Amino acid sequence: MTDVIVVGAGVVGLTTALALRAENATVTLVDEGRADGTASWAGGGILSPLYPWRYSPAVHALALAGARLHPCLRDTLVERTGIDPELRRDGLVVLDAEVQAAGLAYAEAQGIEVSSVGIERLRALLPGLTPDLKHGLYFPEVATVRNPRLLSALRAALEVDPGVRFERARRVEQLVLRGGRVQGVATPSGNLCADRVVLACGAWAGLLDLPGGRLQIVPVRGQMLLFRFSPPALEVPVLFEGRYLVPRSDGHLLVGSTLETAEFDSGTTAEAAAVLEEFARRLFPMVFEGQAPLRHWAGLRPGSADGIPWIGPWPETPGLYLNVGHYRYGLTMAPAAARLLVESLMGRASSFGHVADYAPENRRSATQGRAFSVGTAAPES
Ligand SMILES: Cc1cc2nc3c(=O)[nH]c(=O)nc-3n(C[C@H](O)[C@H](O)[C@H](O)COP(=O)(O)OP(=O)(O)OC[C@H]3O[C@@H](n4cnc5c(N)ncnc54)[C@H](O)[C@@H]3O)c2cc1C
Predict the structure, then answer these.
(1) Domains in the chain: how many in total?
(2) Domain range spanning residue 166?
(3) 191, 221, 223, 315: most buried by Cβ count inside 10 Å?
(4) Beta carbon of 85 within 6 Å of any ligand 1 atom
(5) Residue 335: what are its φ and ψ, rounded to 5°?
């Protein structure tokens, strides 16, 4: 029998499995193998909250801790698999004029590097930027990761580990309980047994019946466009009016995103494509002239009230743990969230601040009776 079953093999489940293996626990990773809609594949890979000063200390602390662990995760994965997740520290330029004072105050309070940049520096950082925008804030420490490669590297590292079993194309339909304790999970092709189960199933976590009720985790759709330029058109990611452009090393350029409540529909819409294209063309008119997107996709974020994830034991059910609800920043938070979850599963005191903020029993009381909406999930950005 495996020590721990992890349900969901997105970035959260995979990093959780890796952290459990570092503790020598054997792991079974169960994933229904969705062909589309999973957030970890669809995301932009910016390793920071957008406008971080608008978020609660709980979101901010976990994102900062996650971002700081990514270089070590990258080194481990490159060494074990040879797959480079393309962690790049190119910084981020924020172009919204009205956030300049708040951004500077935040950076000073947190000891984060920032510079206020005028037109000349902007042109150097962002060649082709519209002359309408003349000021920005440059956060040089912000990094990005190429998330599909991060997932490939995580999978490859776990696949060669004899302490990990992958159960692919198996949908967990319910928990198996005995005497109130978790004993495993039920799938259409039979039960899998373990006396500890971690739910890391993203936007779908709220569909499972748990003792004490379903989780308030709601899918929030985000659409992305992909362009390609040769040579690369942009080196530095840029954020404006809540949307962003993220360059990859090979000339691919992502334009994102939308925040939509569309239930579990992970289809794309012509309206969103038009909005994202218009955004990119308005910022970089010459760069995007005559360019058509190569691809258009959508993913479902695991939306949680206030954007705060649920990490730790489920109070009603010994053996059941959650690592869900990372909403807009799961790629950033994942290594820190995995560490936090494993500390709690191993019964160790955490050195991490704000632990109680993510505890499922506290998340449940904080969200009880509150209707979820994109607006209450996190500040509009
Ligand atoms: C458009 C977009 C842009 C984003 N940009 C960023 C960004 O720049 N930076 C950032 O930090 N974050 C970003 N995010 C958010 C981030 O992608 C998510 O928070 C994170 O990927 C959530 O990871 P997850 O593993 O919980 O969920 P997912 O990646 O969705 O994985 C869940 C997994 O669980 C499996 N599963 C579900 N139900 C079951 C079941 N019953 N049985 C078995 N398996 C099941 C699914 O098949 C899936 O593989 C973005 C998200 C989107 C959609």
Answers:
(1) 1
(2) 4-74+147-217+305-377
(3) 221
(4) no
(5) -65, -35
